[in-house]
Amino acid sequence: MKRVSIMAVLLLLMTVGAFAQTQSWARSYNKDGQLNFYASVGYVDAITIAPGAEYIFGQFQLGGIPFDFGIMGRLYIAIASAGGETAVGWGIAPLATLHMGLTAVPIEFFIGAGVIIAGVEGESYLDFAGLLGAIYHLNSTFGILLEVGYAGGFVWGAGIEVQL
Fold first, then answer.
1. Cα–Cα distance measured from residue 128 to residue 78, given in angstroms and rounded to the nearest whole number
2. pTM of the model
3. pLDDT digit of tens for each residue in the chain (164 aa)?
4. Distance CA 101, CA 139 (A)
5. What CATH number should be reported for the domain holding residue 105?
6. Residue 124: helix, strand or coil by DSSP?
7. Is residue 95 part of a domain?
8. What secondary structure does DSSP assign to 74-102, as a single string?
9. N or C: which end of the chain has fewer CB within 10 A?
10. What domain count does the chain have?
11. Rg of the chain over CA atoms, in angstroms?
């Protein structure tokens, strides 16, 4: 029984190892040194406009799955109106990013984590910033973006990505 268990574990490890070498379902949509530009608009308690840029440093593989990594800078502008008064908030967020794409459909997923320096009505603060998103690539340089995250408060947006 012990030998059968050991053989089953070895067979499982060999199968997983072979599978990990040929991940044809995953692909990269970025190149080393690539520059990506983003712009999104969303609404929670305020209209939020979030342009940004990202530099892709490189790529690595984990279990045969290609991942791209980079650094992104996002600017957040929030415009809220209540009771006839308008407040404008702002935020600047540097984020470390990680990307993974699919082969069957031209979709790429990304995650970013960092901090945000933000302010509203003369008050400023430092907080955590995180972002999750998906990009549907229409061609090699243009995609439709949907993102959600936290940048001193809940944010989401729909927009575009342009790759250079």
1. 17
2. 0.81
3. 555 456 555 555 555 454 455 568 999 999 999 999 999 999 988 899 999 999 999 999 998 899 999 999 999 999 998 888 888 999 999 999 999 999 999 999 999 999 999 998 889 999 999 999 999 999 999 999 999 999 888 999 999 999 99
4. 14
5. 2.40.160.20
6. strand
7. yes
8. EEEEEEEEETTEEEEEEEEEEEEEEEEEE
9. N
10. 1
11. 20
